[in-house]
Batch of 2 targets.
Target 1
Amino acid sequence: MSTASEPTPQDASGDRGVIHDIGYRHYDGPRLGRASIRRAMFVEGLRGSYGLGRSARSKVVPALLLAAACLPALILVIVASVSGADELPLGYTAYPRALELLVALFVAAQAPVLVSRDLRFRVVSLYFSRPMERVDYVLARWASLAGAVLVLLAAPLTLLLVGALLAEMPLGEQVGDYLRALAQAALLAVLLSGVALVIAAVTPRRGLGVAAIVTVLLVLSGVQATVAGIARNEGETALAGYSSLLSPSALVAAVSDQVLGGGPGGGPPGAAGTAAAVAAYLLAVAACGAALVLRYRKVSVS
């Protein structure tokens, strides 16, 4: 025996539903473009390189490396002040070169943080579904890591400058050497960041990326030092100078010495050698940029 269906409850007006206004509003402000996206990604990447906005464990490695970079500078300043020296025990342009291993560890630790996780967890696909080109992502991440490396090198250099001025060393000489060292640090930051990001972009797993970056940078540096040593023993000073083209750090040192001055000038000799060093640096930077853009063109947005 069938029974009649229960009537549907209705409100007093007889309507079956009510639309409630809960306060959401449409966005009617300015639409920000690609430049704003790049700027936001740069700031986020720079902060992330030092663990800002992330877990406490993420801050340990960059904080330790920054402290390790600044500690020798502090010691040098104290020694110069106590001894009353007229100049610093270690020059400004020589200081970034003394931190070669430390900088290699920094870029090896932070490059995978910026790109490997995005690839592994497919976050890049979400980025590219927005009004953002592949080159925007590459430039933002590259600028973030280069800026973080520049901070790592500029902090101890600034500490050296402040200590030298407090010790009443000549202002003009100190500022000139400081600015040359900053320019060298910027060149080094751009090139090492590019190399590290290329390696990290093809190794989505962070551990493999860190190991690969450290290995490549140290092997290139070792090969360059070996070739330079053998060439000097054989009396081939020109070959020893051109061996600086084999290592990113040595290449930056050669460009800095011959273009900016203030260094021992151990790069390729003569005007032709200077042109070769500058061309090699620009070619290396361009190759890193092209490799990164080609890598991210293969990333699908689906």
Target 2
Amino acid sequence: MGLDMGSKTIGVALSDELGIVANGMGTISRQGTDRDLKTLADLVSKYEVRQIVVGLPIRMAGTVGIEAKKVLQFVEKMKRSLSVPITTWDERLTTVQAQRVLLEAGLSRKKRKKVIDKTAATLILQSYLDAEQTRASS
């Protein structure tokens, strides 16, 4: 499962069983840490998730800023409450890439806003899956 952590929503993507293709699932409206963790635990159980990949918003210079620190704090809480491995993944330019994909698809600004987090989560997960495939074939 791939996650794009935002302050208001969490974008969610799932891969196929073989871990080859990422598919956008939707978004979770943030409702506080405890409720967010419960919602994620429910998704892990429902979809038999074996691993979670969380996008880490590292700055372009490669440094960890305020947003990345918030994500890392939440990841630590996830690790304590969920029973699956959790990995962070550099998500630099993912939102920009998601915007480009949605613009090319001809979506209006209003429609893009509704699916941007899900699209970013899909791109994060797909990037991770591609890297794992490359690593496995090396």
